[in-house]
Amino acid sequence: MSKGRGRRNSPDDDYSSFVEHPRYGHKPRITGRNVHKDKFGDNYSHWHSPIECRIPNTAIAADTSRQPRATVPVTHYFDVIRECVDCERNFIFFADEQKFWYETLKFPLEADCIRCSECRRIQRESRFLRERYETLIHLNERTTDETLELIDCGITLMERNIFGDKVIEKVRSWFNTFPKDAKIRKHKTFTDLKSRLETFISTPKKISKLGQHILRSFQIISDHNAAMREKRKP
After folding, report:
1. How many CA atoms does the CB half-sphere of 115 hold within 13 Å?
2. 3-class DSSP state for residue 54?
3. Could you count the other beta carbons within 10 Å of the beta carbon of residue 24?
4. How far is CA 123 from CA 98, 154, 179, 222, in A?
5. Which residues, other chains included, contact 108 with Cβ-Cβ below 8 Å and sequence gap of 6+?
6. Which residues is 54 bridged to in the sheet?
């Protein structure tokens, strides 16, 4: 679907290729309502939703009393077309979702949705995995289950292009902590992890924008934690 400036979107356009939202789907939610800024300044749509990205007949009224304080409140929300910064697919930032963001979650009106629901889910999961990875890797001793979980976290983060090749040798070393005659080596969990690692190694790789962002964030956290540990030393 063309998203060029000046083009008027339509509820009748083909949205079949748009990313599916788990609650709202991928098609516009038609309300039959259009709102435009009037000469009295009583109607305001969101600044991040100019007319060329709005879908007509999808407006819903906002409750300005529930929004965070702003110089200019938003009186109406529209379903609007977005392109995800990570996967570069089209998705709809739904009017109902905007209402939830700004009136229930109290996000500032300056906040915008730049990722599709799938990439937002992956981002949340990846942050959790990265936090769990950091916790497990700093344990002085790990159980068998914790070692397997650490291996799983490392491989998953590499599969998602958040970690690069440097983690491969670490993962291999964790596999090698199990004796060659250990029963766990014949267990399906172990063999599946080994297979995933070999598949990853043989697949071309590129660190994603999401991966770069998460790595920068956690590098800052890691540096801070290291500095705090140094301060606690006698």
Report:
1. 11
2. strand
3. 17
4. 20, 15, 35, 19
5. 68, 70
6. 80
Residue 65 and residue 74: Cα distance in Å, rounded? 10
* pTM confidence score: 0.69
Query: What angle, 0 to 180 degrees and rounded to 10, lies between the N-to-C axes of helices 166-175 and 188-201?
Result: 160
Between CA 103 and CA 75 the distance in angstroms is: 12
Which residue intervals of the chain are DSSP H helices? 95-99, 117-137, 144-159, 166-175, 188-201, 209-232
- pLDDT band of residue 178 (cuts 50, 70, 90) is very high
Which strand (E) or helix (H) includes residue 77? strand 76-77
Please state, in angstroms and rounded to a whole number, the distance separating the CA atoms of residues 56 and 10: 6
Beta-carbon neighbour count of residue 169 at 10 Å?
9
Q: Which of 129, 142, 116 is nearest to 24 (CA)?
A: 116
Question: pLDDT tens digit string along 156-174?
Answer: 999 988 888 889 999 999 9
Tell me which residue has tokens 């964790």: 174
What's the CA angle centered on 220, arms 217 and 222, to 5 degrees? 105
Closest C-alpha among 87, 26, 23, 84 to residue 55: 26
